[in-house]
Amino acid sequence: MNLLIPALLLGTSALALARGVDVYAALLEGGQRGLELVKTVLPSLVMLLTAVELLRVSGAMDALTRLLTPAAAWLGIPPETVPLMVVRPLSGSAALAVGAELMAVHGPNSLVGRTAAVMLGSTETTFYTISVYFAAAGVRRSRYAIPAALTADLTGFLAAALTVRLL
Amino acid sequence: MAMSVIWVCMLALALFCGLLRGDADLGRAALAGAGKAVELSLSLAGSLCLWSGFGCLLERSGLQKRLARLLSPLLGRLYPSARRDPETMGALSGNVTANLLGLGSAATPLGVAAVRRMQARAGTEEASDEMCRLVVMNTASIQLLPTTVAALRGTLGADSPFDILPAVWLSSLISVTAGLGAAALLRRVWGKLE
Predict the structure, then answer these.
(1) What is the per-residue pLDDT across A5-34, written as a single tens digit (0 to 9) for each?
(2) Do the beta carbons of residue A113 and residue A100 sit within 8 Å?
């Protein structure tokens, strides 16, 4: 895995150069887009990490985790990841904030940290995606799209907990 | 709107629990949280810029298009109407490849274009089975390179930020299969439920 990233960067850059693409300009333009992304995510991270920190210091996070531990344990999910599962379908940056907090508190190499990372990587902001896609196309009745997409999310969370323990 | 409700609930819950405990320093916690968010954003900025640059390179070099062509036979099975309409197919395969390569911002406009085209051809305000399938595929996030999460892990000091890849691939595969399976089942019963 250590060589994968530089090899991927080199391979793509060399191939693009061979095809006559101005590689460096493309990288810079993309980088600009990345900066835009940071700019959009920052205010939302500020609001949510403030709330998350309040919940943690007040003891609410611990209480919530304790309350949900039996159910989560029965499903094989680390109970600490419950808040992440709640916000994941609603807001991408909120999920990023909650996931970052989990990884910072428990460590990115811990079971909780890894599960949180896989959950973030294998699911999407379901409600946002559905509303953007259907609103843009003028679709008013979404029929079974929401229950089907939420089934995918829920299965994704379970699968994340399972694969992290097995792989 | 949903986030506003969640925000108020979070604050109310924190204040309530803090009052119960009595000794929690909530004022300091609020400011600490805000500070942490800026630190996190700044440390994420580097990797996000790098990977967005990489994404732009994939688009420019035509690699994304080539991958899209590779995928179109498979997509034709899931979206029969796209087989008869090259424009829908182009948007669809572009959407799926952008997702695979972790180019979220490129995937959305293409996915929207595909749904629009499908809607224009169907002419109803109701989501067709194919539109539901497309949305499920997009919400289940099939990514080969989950760059944002890897950036986050790297920032927080993971030994090897990308070592979660096999787990991410497998979970995505399982969740997209479950989503499409649920869509196939619901498709049969939905008419009767309404």
Answers:
(1) 788 889 989 999 999 999 999 999 988 988
(2) no
Distance of alpha carbon A51 from alpha carbon A83, whole angstroms: 12
Residue B38 is assigned to a structural domain of this protein: no
ipTM at complex level:
0.82
- Has this prediction a pTM greater than 0.90? no
B8 lies in some domain:
no
> Is there a domain that residue B162 lies in?
yes
Asked if the structure places residue B62 within a domain, the reply is yes
Q: Which of B30, B54, B55 sits opposite A50 (nearest CB)?
A: B30
For testing the chain B interface, which of A124, A125, A131 should be mutated: the one with the most B CBs within 10 Å?
A124
Three-class DSSP category at A141: strand
Which token pair is A157?
A: 């969370």
Asked whether residue A152 carries a pLDDT value surpassing 90, the answer given is yes
When scoring A53, A56, A101, A112 by the number of chain B Cβ atoms within 10 A, the one with the most, hence best to mutate, is A53
Q: Which residues contact B101 (CB under 8 A, 6 or more apart)?
A: B55, B58, B64, B67, B143, B144, B145
B8 contact A CB<8A: no
Nearest residue in A to B1, CA atom: A90
Q: What share of chain B is helix, strand, coil (3-state, %, to 5)?
A: 85, 0, 15
pLDDT per residue as tens digits for the range B65-96: 887 788 888 899 989 988 888 888 888 888 88
Q: Are A124 and B140 within 8 A, CB to CB?
A: yes
Residue A58 is nearest to which of B24, B63, B182, comparing CB atoms? B24
At residue B53, does pLDDT exceed 80? yes
Residue A1: per-residue pLDDT: 53
pLDDT, tens only, A89-122: 888 888 998 999 999 999 999 999 999 999 999 9
Contact A142 B183 (CB under 8 A): no
Give residue B171's domain range.
45-187
Structure-token pair, residue B141: 């996030």
- Using the Cβ of A5 and the Cβ atoms of chain B, whether some distance falls under 8 Å is answered with yes
Q: State how many domains chain B has.
A: 1
